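quick one before i forget lol
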Amino acid sequence: MSDRAALLKGIRAWLVLFVVCLVLSGATAFPLVHELRWTESALRALSVPEHLPGLMAWIVRVREDLDTVDAEYPFVLYGTDWLAFAHLVIAVAFYGPYRDPVRNIWVVEFGMIACAGIIPLALACGPVRGIPFWWSLIDMSFGVLGVVPLHIVRKKIKRLETLGTPPAPPAAAPVSG
């Protein structure tokens, strides 16, 4: 396998991993009410309330409040539907670098900027919305973890760029007759 082919394979593998995580992250924003009910039950079954009472109290509060929103103001959850949709749309954008990494490196750089933006957003909006700081740290970890594969992809794309464009296949000889 040539250096170019190996780099392209590595770039595509990391992009697929990133896109799968982005899609899963987005898809989980649709069924929030049911997820919180399931999470609370699972945590109780694992005896989490005895070991991490702060986490359990937060999960119960969020679940109760989401139940209220779902029962009385279901239109508010429409916002999380759009959040999920945004994740899916952003995931589609990564088809560009999958297809032509050098030309579409800007999508990877955009993703890195978006990952970095998670940190100030969590630090600014978390306290305003009453989010515990430790939960904001979990939110910020998505930006930190998300930038890792994108940084790896960017480095690989830069190496691929130094190899130049692949030679064009020879043109077929014209048929004379």
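fyi The chain has a mean pLDDT of 94.
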